């Protein structure tokens, strides 16, 4: 049986992280990972059974090639335009790992990265028209005016081709303000089938008040969505498909690396839901995938299906031997 | 005063462990330790005052020599037959370190290791006849038919020589099934004086029902044991000597490395009990040793006696200076 | 606006620490930090806005230069007498990192270090007469008879010059006994304006009974102090200035490295109080600085002011991006 | 233009290497790489422009998956039968890195690995019939009787399908003796088109005397080969196609890791020769690829085409910026 | 005696270097250093006795603060304008460490860094007017039009204040082409007193033909220089002051890190020459400093004066104890 | 056959070494080894077949225990007096690893270590009277007046018991001056049977002029020695037994760690010579052992006999597999 094909479009960055307990100021080594919201979704989905492709634009340098190598490691197929221009660059971010009550600190250095100039025309378009689902996040249109346009064309092309369009709001306050985000996202949402949104972002950015259930119902109605998933941090997630709502609590974890938790959630959900599992089953896999991500270093959920099964079966042993 | 002599016979393996948070699939370094149930017992017992010897069979290669070096580091005397055959090999296991709710994953690569061919005749026999106590575990007879025979001869020889025979059931479901285990162990138990068994294994493997106290009493009676110690995970341990039973709770720990906890418990117990401490005192030392093991990397309890004393005295300071 | 000038005099040592979970006996690498009670205070204070100088005596070797380099890293100005003698040495200490219930173990190798011969005359005296505040701790007079004399002259010179004199009792039982400490400290306290003392040390060493409030009031009265701060471990701290007392609880932390917590507390307090913040505000900053220190490796609090602000504002996010 | 397709069949192992200067006996970390003669050829060839697939049989465990992940990293397509049996295992080897005059020491632990049971029938056969070239080495038939048969069928199937069959003698004295090797290889050579052989192996194993030119000519004639490449260590390599012979000296290197040099040579040669470059050009690329391999850690040549070009152009700068 | 004051103005970057033998594509850690041509000169000069200040513009982030921390470590005083703008960034470069015949590969990501907007007006000007010497390199005006202007004003201001102006051509072909460089540098040279130039750059960029002696004499005459130093790689360096020329060969080294060799040369030269040592003495110290730099990791020459003395005295022992 | 028993008495220190290319000033990790001239001899001799014991005095702390653990790792038996005094300390030394032309720098911190108070009476005396050979070096009597006396008693006791006494002059200019050394050594030499001395030390310290052959003959005659071995750095070594002299050149090496070369030479020599090999054979083994030491990190020669054999047989392959 051929698995469903998922296409994810977005920016991935080189993450340069300090070792635990070492401030950026004094560290003399940095751990390197490749990460990006949509790529993270692709990795989780691929590892749980989908056939995932990651579409992007990268500098034509060994640093850019590091990104495609990273995705191939996860068996995600990279479909990439290579930026040969002189000032082609890969976005990076510094991560100073925290420990409570000191939060982890992210310092972006992503302005002017190659993807900010990516037009729909130069991208490999086949993936979008042959996909079962296409995923983008609200980070992408926040990066440049060009990418607003490109995102819009990807969503409409995908929808026209019969693919399910998936959108994760993923609001980042240091990339744009709520008003700009609202204006742009409001234009994109009519082409979206499945929406993931944090309860907080629904309020701050999209201006929806009320509890998760209310917000989900209102968004579903206003944008004629197939499915809305509202996440509320440690309070879990709620999905609404117009008829029924389902709620899923989080699995408690020992947190090794919190980055990418939300993306793992989306990837875990899609891997189940696109293979015709029920919404409650998909939500449960989403929560388990998110929990597993927190136990693994890096942005991507380097997991195996049996890890998810073990959590869902409730038979986790301290040592399995 | 000469300390009591403890002989432990069994397999030790090279443990190849991923750094925390790094899956086997992507790691590019592995931390190396030497471990094995009986060797771990010998280390803990030696460090707490016994004179311990570890008997085994190893490949005559630098990899095999790594094992004897490891035991000498702990001042445990290795008494080893060197396997000069072409296909001599050291068993290994891969350890993928977990973080809740992801359990640690052990992948064994131990089939056909040199010890599986070890006959009683080729082993250095002096240790068994000159020992105060001889320790084996249920892992050893699970490894090969030859080792069932060898284990049996060791136990009967030791008993005949007046040594106390100690046996830890240590059931491993990936080495054999409960029925095979029961059949073999039932044959061995008549030569055993002191039995350590997990409550769960007593039920699954040995077919004893009831609470820990009942199981201990029944085993004591059926096999004419001197002492039975039944461990029940976080619920602690119970010892029964035919007259009195004693219960010991676990000490809570920050867990750095859970492997070898049970072996440290046995080693800590024997170090006290063989030097004529009372059963409750031996159980308390066992629990403290097990707790300390969890705070130290590797299979072996690289501890100092004052660490145990500090826990037993209840005067642990965050920093001792 | 010129920040207040703080001078700290004391010994700093090379700290040689085992990696987590690795006993001293088996480790083959040691992490190196520079630390010392007064230097730690200077670092925290400088990072939170004061202009700090650290005065000491060091061996004229690359190992000694490592110490000044370390302080310059934190922008603390080192004012140092270089010991050119043949047996000049830097004190060191080994730190075996613990994990509950195994405490961290400190093994000092500091006897005969260069600072133990430091006389007031050979030290650069300008700092003491030009300072707004001068800080010493009870560790320094415990190191040698020479240093009792030097400490005494520093305090009286500073007081005569109009500087605020700050003293942290910091009793270390492996350097002297309570009686010797009491005798020496009693002689020094008349020249002290601001006293920091652990509740336990007030009782054991200074012979003051009662709850923190009583101890603070009694010390304030007996030594005509401007301010007394009594710390009671996890129960927090209490300050008394003769009129009002203020209490500050601790901030809970995930502890990466507990060493230097008390010094960070003092440094955080002074940075606020010497810039005319109120005592409650200074106590709160002290507690936040101490909490942050516990999340960072090494003796020194390698923090940024916004980390403190974030805790005081109560808006710590798991990931700030 | 579609690049030529190269299929390589063989065993890859987990290489567990000590850090420089650290003997196996005392090391507590091992660096992990994946390596195997045929896989190494595939990597070098893919990185220099071919479309390479690596065919093998692996244990269905995370350790086995580590191997496919490694090949995907190099963009080599793994086509693998997963061994689900209980005693499925991945071969490993320990590498104790040397420094002159101490040679690097390899200790194999590869007996009974999953590939030793691989039959032609269970392998994915499409690769062999759709390839432009199929590569195997003399290591594979040395591993088991089954693999002699499988290798034979692969070669004959490939030849029947019109693919160029490539064989590297790669004699390993610890796997078999010269007589057994000669007997087996003599049976396989009639299906070979292109033969790589070390001058020393030609003599010891295949019983051909004389200088490289004589050996090449005799082998060419006796087995009706298209091409023979005889390598003579630091004396370089000689190729003979029945008409002309070409000689290529080695490029001097600073050696970081000598393992895989010969495989990189073969991969570099095939990448050029299969895209219709002349034999001298292919030999030169082979030598450059081999030289580059020696400057990179691991068994595989993690190179970029411009590195080869830079050597061939003779314009290597100490720092390129 | 107050040491001469040297001011260096220029960009420093975060250098992100792969461990030896590990390509960028596969590395998962990067070693971090701070480096930049002028800062490197300041470090070498300060360590050999000058009082050096480094002037620059940096992003007001923990990443920017890492740079000032680095210079303070070397006791170089950082005088920095903090860039508070939203897109403030620190330039970085990736270094893939080579091994012959594979050269080290530098990949710059420095476009749009904060310093490219630095105007003379916003810089702290006191350093330039109070300096004994001011150093800039040809890299700075290559970075932006603004910096051409700023460099010009720095040189003329310094010259007007009576400081010696020092310029190192340091042509980088990936920043500009020879024609642009020539045009800009020709405008700057009239304000230069001491010129360092690679023989190759003198020809390619400045259009001067002939051997080192001829080039030096012609440059000296054309620009009314006090001193010209022409470096010719492994052939050493030649200095000409209008009257005499002096030649200095290189000291052979075991090269650990070649980056910063030229800057260490300039720093070593200035430290001697500005303290009134003769030109041959200064050249010899320059060559020794450059040689030492090659034995130390990072861009900066973390040396001690006695290391230089030991080379100049010719009494280097393998182990000094 | 029981191997000859060798006893070595002397100080071992904790060596704290910077990673390659990292100065002491900036390093934040140190590699830890245990080393000492006589212990190094014991290790090499034990590994090549003798039964070696190392006698010393150590602080009764985990740091002291690290030393005995280190020797047990090499299967050398530690016979140690534990110093329970308050100021008991282990000597240490810092090693800043060099790279030509920068020499490695040793900074000792060994004054007042526990061994400096070791009297003959408190040492375990059995080893000295039961040994076949007793080894001490000239470092030991340089450490304290007590140790001059102790060394003298050890040599005379050993000689009286019929053991061969072995002495390595090992002059260290930072411990004493040539005159003091000469006076002390002259008193000790009458009890010495076998003398190792560097040609340079024979001249500087013992005041013997002439070429190696002359010096050896003169020393042999003057002190009625059984054997004199004079080493002349890269020029090799010469042995003279009163009848014949034998010369041995050095084996060239890639040097990883030069410390302990001379001690490995002595250990390799004794392992052969004490088992009745001829002097030329013993010298050759000494040279091979010294060469191997240079390829291995740490002070001790962690070698295997087959490594020596491989060098002596002249069949070293780059990779042995």
TrEMBL record, chains A, B, C, D, E, F:
The lineage of its organism: Archaea, Methanobacteriati, Methanobacteriota, Stenosarchaea group, Halobacteria. Gene3D superfamilies: 3.40.1190.20. InterPro entries: Carb_kinase_PfkB-like, KDG_KDGal_kin_Halo, PfkB_dom, Ribokinase-like. It comes from the Archaea. Signal peptide: none annotated. One of its GO terms (molecular function) is kinase activity. Belongs to the carbohydrate kinase PfkB family. It comes from Halorhabdus utahensis (strain DSM 12940 / JCM 11049 / AX-2). PANTHER family: 2-DEHYDRO-3-DEOXYGLUCONOKINASE_2-DEHYDRO-3-DEOXYGALACTONOKINASE, SUGAR KINASE. It holds the Pfam family PfkB. Keywords: Kinase, Transferase. This is PfkB domain protein. Residues 8-300 form the Carbohydrate kinase PfkB domain.
